[in-house]
Amino acid sequence: MATKTKRPQLTGYTSEGSRVVIPEGHTPGTTADFLYQCEEAEQAPVKVKEVIHGFPFDVALCFMEVLQETFGWSKPVPTPGFFGPTPPTMVEVQCSPDPNNTRQIFWGEFILPGMDGNLSANMVQDDDHEGRQVFQVGGTIRKRDEDIVKGIVAKTRTKVATSSIYKGQAIKLKTDSRGRLRYNTTPDFLDVSSAKQEELLFSPALHGQVMTNLFTPITQTEQCRQVGVPLKRGVLLEGPYGTGKTQTAYVTAKLCTEHGWTFIMVEEVAALAEALELAAMYSPAVVFAEDIDRAVSGLHRNSSVDGILNTLDGVGTKESEIITILTTNHVNNINKAMLRPGRLDAVLTVTPPDGPTAVKLARQYARGLLDDSNALELAGQEMAGMIPAVIREVVERSKLWAIGRAGGDLSKLALTADDLVGAAQGMQDHLTLLAEEQQGPVDTLESKMLAVIADVTEECVSEKLDAWADRE
Q1: CB 394 within 8 A of CB 423
Q2: Residue 368 and residue 370: Cα distance in Å, rounded?
């Protein structure tokens, strides 16, 4: 049933949809005055400014779809300026992992059929969210058309929540030189087609931890909900370079796309807080950032550290289903406030493989060339502690040895345990050089004091940069 609204002028009149109810005793003259005032009010210009949250390019696509569904078309118009009119900016947006699946959106002013006045679709700074870029519909229209615009905005918000091009996909968010998200650049869709869970080889204990803390919430989401397991979790993958932390992320991304989760990789860990707030709009989601020690290292708590800690604690995302996966090669450098449960629920130490796991990796890289008749325990002992990239090189060198032994006859090509042992022993000098390069400075009192000074200086410089960037 249509709602009744009371007119502020010439009291006593009410309306029911398009019908006007005339109060008893009113003359045709007073009724005509009332209708004139109604028409005058409906023709009055009003300003509209509606913000629609989400990644701006995603929102722009949804907004254009709503315009096409509602009106069939919309017409971009040039924006007047001192040096003449500026035509609308047309931008091509990739809509899926398929690079050929693109659509065009426009930034600038446009008009709608049957509506007086121009509207604009632009990215603007949102003062309520630290000046981050958001999508805004604004302009000056007639009062009578205000409900039409509000209806378009409401439909767009619904479409962003249900039909986003990024929801359920694996994407990488780009950052600027200050470590903030670049909202004026479209995210990249990640190619996770080659990621294979069966090729993620860890020791049995670590494999169980990865399955429990990462994969189960993604592959058994509804079961976790039914038994009350929170899907807002933080996981730290710590360990030396090249042990499989990034590979774990790509396998996680593949599982996300297969089970209705959104996977968001952050280009720079400094943008983690922004990415987590954005992920809440696309949940359930996984947010992945490497080298967290770059943002939360040292003894001193600065504004950057506090911002990330507050976000992990749940400010703005407390009820969201977001798994945050972070990595570090230097866990001892991380501020201890970061490590407590509730911020990081699981710390998984990703170490180089033991002997049996190294043999499994060698078989994987050999692609069927490894002779199963040979005992590989000795080869496993030689490769134990080597990172997967080194084990791959051991296998490649073994192939070269085998090719030479077979005289170039590939029909006789087969790898033996002796090939692996010899290649592994030949890698020792190379590994010694790598170990010397990765050794850091001695952690003295002086170095700790210098780290504190660096943290304080970084905070002061960051505050000055923020003030400069936000100047009028």
Answers
A1: yes
A2: 6
CATH architecture of 44-163: 2-Layer Sandwich (3.30)
Q: Which CATH class is domain 355-438?
A: mainly alpha
Contact (CB, 8 A) for 263 and 170: yes
HSE-CB at 242 with a 13 A cutoff on CA atoms is 13
Quick: pLDDT tens for 54-100: 899 999 999 988 988 888 766 666 656 556 666 777 888 888 898 89
From the CB of residue 59, how many other CB atoms can be counted at a distance below 10 Å?
A: 26
Sketch the domain layout of the chain as residue ranges. Answer: 1-43, 44-163, 170-349, 355-438, 442-472
Whole-model pTM: value is 0.76
Do 110 and 8 contact (CB within 8 A), yes or no? no
DSSP class of 351: P
Q: How many CA within 13 A on the CB side of residue 173?
A: 33
Q: Which token pair is 15?
A: 């309306």
* Prior bond of 284 cis (ω within 30°): yes
Token reading at 58: 């995603």
Say if domain 170-349 classifies as CATH 3.50.50.60: no
In the sheet that holds 322-328, the strands lie side by side as 188-189, 170-173, 262-266, 285-289, 322-328, 233-238, 346-349
